[in-house]
Design brief:
Elements lengths: L4 E3 L18 E3 L11 E3 L4 E4 L12 E4 L3 E4 L7 H5 L5 H9 L5 E3 L18
Bound molecules: iron/sulfur cluster (2 copies).
Length: 125
């Protein structure tokens, strides 16, 4: 039975988005200065969060598309350090994917593009 999907890079996020619709995404208020004003809401005098994530059934206002199918972040270049902390296959990723009934991911390194399988062999003619 397929219990894990093996992925090679961050492309997995483009068909997921679970962590953007599971956690409260909070950060030091100054990070919000780079984001559209209406995408951020204050939490405390020093912390803000992405709108839509401080509620039951969170979903970040910047998340576009359908979770588990095809998604994108409309503020990807300006996203907070909190967003960047979640890595494919880490504990938070697994937790969010499980909550959205998505199969776990494991990350495998890309093969070294500088070498090939036949480096140590001569051609037989
Ligand atoms: S839960 Fe994991 S795979 Fe899904 S978007 Fe977040 S980091 Fe990417
Ligand atoms: S800002 Fe982008 S990366 Fe961060 S939670 Fe929202 S949709 Fe996800």
């Amino acid at each position: 039975m397929l219990s894990q999907l093996i992925i090679q890079d961050q492309d997995a996020c483009l068909s997921c988005g679970a962590c953007c619709a599971y956690f409260r995404v909070s950060f030091y208020w100054a990070e919000g200065e780079a984001l559209p004003e209406n995408y951020v809401e204050p939490l405390t005098p020093v912390y803000s969060c992405m709108k839509g994530t401080n509620q039951n059934n969170p979903r970040c206002i910047a998340l576009e598309g359908d979770v588990g199918k095809q998604v994108s972040c409309s503020v990807y270049a300006e996203r907070s350090s909190t967003c960047k902390e979640v890595q494919v296959g880490d504990e938070q990723c697994m937790k969010a994917r499980k909550a959205h009934h998505l199969i776990p991911l494991i990350e495998i390194p890309l093969p070294d593009s500088g070498s090939s399988n036949d480096d140590d062999y001569d051609q037989v003619s």
